């Protein structure tokens, strides 16, 4: 019998190795695991080996677990401190024990909940009693962590699941293949097998020399494990933004666009934001050191200034605070895309604004915020407005319900809010799918007369700004916005997440 050398090596090693798994055979033969698997399938097709598949669970320790390897699980540290303080005799205050144990931060809660769960003692109105018979030296969770750290396996699946719930390990499943020679395989080995040279790639030289006619080609193995190729793909934020645009277009909206850096007039003045409003100070705004934008529509500027100074209508009240045209012309990065809504509603953008109208944008905005799990310095806003006669808050809520439903979000909550430019105003909240926490996802309201009158609009306009990244959080369950942006991003999440249409 003749076999390609890799198959012969695998058959030979499988015959002499205890527990001939693919990994072991790869060690024995010096072949890559994928080649061993490939050879094994070929040998199986020849009836020379059997391939048995089982799934094995790998458990990997998290960083938190590594900390506990040295110091002991927090509940064990608490128990030791309790014994040292004599809590097996009489109750000792929790505060004292926590101090003595050196536990801090989230570890305190972890210690307390697991202490009771594992029967190390009882905690009652702030006092701790320790069970003298408990023995932390045989704590199964600690022992399991130590075994795993030493590279040994732990068979108790309940225990492993418990450690996973505590986020001390991450379990993953993999297929383990065991390759056993059949009787035919052993017989063939005993009878002696010749090496058949096979060629796995055709070269130009082989073609010109004609050698290709005489060689034996390696069989194509479509079942072999192949390396995973990470191709480029569209970012989930972009994919979701495209989806949002489709949904809004489907709801009859037209798209707005306009400058990222704009005159404060469009960003704030038109919105009846007083010029001394905190959001307009240099703390919050990304001001640009460039000449102001002078070609603002003069009549509109006058009407806006008048609304700021004197209010609108017969009994209107303005701000009686300073207003300067220079500030209105000053350029900053837009902190919201409501600047686009103002450009469109004023007619300045050149689009049709006879009611009824609906417009939207999904565009970037810039805020001088502090970076944290829910805030970025630049993010995408889903801006929108509807202009029509007799709009009510019901229309606003109904629009959001219809919109968010397209993304599987059906439990929107509304809370009253304040914006200088809308009355009434509502903040929108959704429930985070994994933490269950309420997450603010947007801000909305009906534009006030102080905004609409200078723009010359006589009907109602309802409007909103929703955060695209927060929508993404609710859809895909990540907790830190930095998982999808920047150097801390979670590549696994970005690679695996399917944006479902
Ligand atoms: N501009 C508001 C959103 C909003 C737009 C229009 C009306 C009401 C609210 C924000 O950024 O939070």
TrEMBL record:
HAMAP family: Phe_tRNA_synth_alpha2 (MF_00282). This is Phenylalanine--tRNA ligase alpha subunit. Tetramer of two alpha and two beta subunits. Its cofactor is Mg(2+). Mg(2+) binds at residue 423. Its EC number is 6.1.1.20. Keywords: Aminoacyl-tRNA synthetase, ATP-binding, Cytoplasm, Ligase, Magnesium, Metal-binding, Nucleotide-binding, Protein biosynthesis. GO terms for cellular component: cytoplasm. The keyword Nucleotide-binding applies. Gene3D superfamilies: Bira Bifunctional Protein, Domain 2, Winged helix-like DNA-binding domain superfamily/Winged helix DNA-binding domain. It catalyses: tRNA(Phe) + L-phenylalanine + ATP = L-phenylalanyl-tRNA(Phe) + AMP + diphosphate + H(+). PROSITE patterns: AA_TRNA_LIGASE_II. GO terms for biological process: phenylalanyl-tRNA aminoacylation. Residues 356-496 form the Aminoacyl-transfer RNA synthetases class-II family profile domain.
């Amino acid at each position: 019998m003749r076999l390609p050398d890799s198959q012969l090596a695998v058959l030979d090693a499988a015959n002499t190795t205890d527990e001939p798994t693919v990994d072991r055979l790869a060690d024995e033969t010096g072949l890559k695991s994928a080649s061993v698997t490939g050879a094994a399938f070929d040998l199986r097709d020849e009836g020379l080996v059997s391939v048995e598949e089982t799934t094995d669970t790998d458990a990997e320790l998290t960083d938190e677990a590594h900390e506990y390897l040295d110091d002991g699980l927090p509940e064990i540290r608490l128990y030791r401190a309790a014994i040292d303080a004599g809590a097996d005799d009489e109750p000792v205050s929790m505060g004292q024990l926590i101090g003595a144990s050196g536990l801090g931060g989230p570890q305190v809660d972890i210690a307390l909940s697991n202490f009771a769960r594992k029967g190390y003692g009882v905690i009652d109105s702030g006092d701790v009693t320790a069970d003298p018979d408990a023995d932390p030296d045989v704590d199964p969770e600690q022992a399991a962590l130590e075994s795993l750290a030493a590279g040994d396996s732990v068979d108790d699946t309940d225990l492993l699941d418990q450690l996973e719930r505590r986020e001390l390990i991450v379990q993953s499943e993999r297929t383990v293949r065991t390759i056993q020679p059949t009787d035919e395989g052993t017989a063939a080995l005993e009878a002696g097998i010749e090496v058949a040279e096979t060629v796995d790639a055709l070269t130009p030289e082989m073609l010109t020399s004609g050698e290709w006619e005489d060689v034996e080609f390696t069989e194509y193995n479509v079942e072999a494990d192949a390396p995973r190729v990470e191709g480029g793909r569209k970012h989930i934020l972009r994919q979701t933004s495209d989806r949002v645009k489709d949904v809004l277009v489907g709801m009859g909206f037209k798209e707005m666009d306009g400058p990222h850096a704009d005159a404060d007039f469009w960003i704030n003045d038109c919105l009846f934001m007083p010029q001394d409003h905190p959001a307009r100070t240099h703390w919050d705004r990304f001001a640009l050191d460039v000449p102001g934008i002078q070609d603002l529509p003069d009549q509109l500027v006058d009407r806006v200034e008048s609304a700021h100074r004197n209010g609108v209508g017969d009994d209107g009240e303005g701000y009686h605070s300073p207003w300067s045209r220079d500030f209105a012309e000053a350029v900053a990065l837009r902190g919201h895309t409501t600047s686009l809504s103002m450009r469109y509603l004023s007619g300045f953008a050149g689009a049709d604004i006879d009611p009824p109208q609906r417009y939207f944008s999904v565009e970037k905005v810039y805020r001088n915020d502090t970076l944290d799990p829910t805030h970025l310095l630049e993010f995408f806003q889903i801006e929108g407005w509807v202009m029509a006669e007799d709009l009510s808050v019901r229309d606003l809520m109904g629009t959001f319900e219809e919109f968010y439903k397209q993304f599987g979000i059906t439990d929107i909550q509304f809370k009253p809010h304040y914006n200088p430019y809308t009355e009434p105003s509502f903040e929108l909240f959704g429930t985070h799918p994994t933490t269950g926490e309420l997450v603010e996802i947007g801000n909305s309201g009906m534009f006030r007369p102080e905004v609409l009158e200078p723009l010359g609009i006589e009907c109602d306009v309802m409007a909103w700004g929703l955060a695209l990244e927060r929508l993404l959080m609710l859809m895909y369950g990540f907790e830190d916005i930095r998982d999808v942006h920047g150097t801390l991003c979670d590549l696994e999440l970005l690679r695996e997440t399917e944006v479902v249409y």
